[in-house]
UniProtKB/TrEMBL annotation:
Transmembrane segments: none annotated. Keywords: Signal. It comes from Neoroseomonas soli. Residues 1-21 form the signal peptide. Belongs to the UPF0065 (bug) family. Gene3D superfamilies: Bordetella uptake gene, domain 1 (3.40.190.150), Periplasmic binding protein-like II (3.40.190.10). Pfam families: TctC (PF03401). PANTHER family: BLR1237 PROTEIN, TRICARBOXYLATE-BINDING PROTEIN. The keyword Signal applies. This is Tripartite tricarboxylate transporter substrate binding protein.
Amino acid sequence: MRKMRAALVAALVMAAVPAQAQVQMIVNFAAGGPTDIVARLMQNEMGAALGQPVVVRNVAGAGGTIGTAEAARARPDGQTVLFSPVGPMAIQPHFRRGLSYGLENFAAICQVADSPVVMMTPKTSGLRTVADVVARARAQGTGFPFASTGAGSIPHISNVAFMRLANIEMNHVPYRGSGEVMLAFQQGQVQLFTDQTLLIRQYDLHPIAFLTERRNPDFPDVPTMREQGYDLVYTIWSGLYVPAGTPEPVMARLEAACDRTMRNAEVVAGMNRVAQPILYRNRTEFAAFSRSEGEKFRSLIEAAGLRSAE
């Protein structure tokens, strides 16, 4: 009887959603960066699985919090989903004061990726090693800039940790997304960025060091930060969320569509092509993981005194 009631509820929910109603996928960073690229890799197969077009909409700014706040305010009907990396969900609620949302305002659907993080630079910068970065930072003092995708993002937090360990000061320059940082690289505004691996080949950059446990098999000659004497290990995970209060049958439908999408051969090939390791977690697993990550970063931010004045 319980299964019959669940099936009836699911059927009613499906009937209430027009077959061709668009599903809006909010991406909380600018076009051209890793988060946007993965969302667009998923877009077509996700739409096919749902039987509805999926439209990606970039709502960038403030370390991903503007788009995330908009998604939190959306109707909990499954027609708006959020594709987000770790920062806006697990870091920003503890780092940035006055946010209108927290992790409790969302329900997790699925995690799709867990990407290694690498310190990188334009090939024309003259920086080749971590020692080069430290030397230039000491020579230029606070005038030496590093880029991030916003205060409180992994590209920001990881460099704050690096500065503390290296006993150096650098000037933080935030952008709305990795695509904007690449433009800043081309214009010579900044020379250092720590973000996801796919940018290295996409923009022909020089990788300085990986913030990973072991060397990356795609770049075996590039050392880890630990090999350079800095105990820094970070990854950037990403996944789908919906506003809290979304009906159970709707979430189950989205989860099934996500699972199908991440098993699709073209999507898998695309993820490999852009150096985004697939790490799939279902909504129960992803909800628990999101909470544990939020607690981890809350403790780190409080211990380091990194809370934003905003």
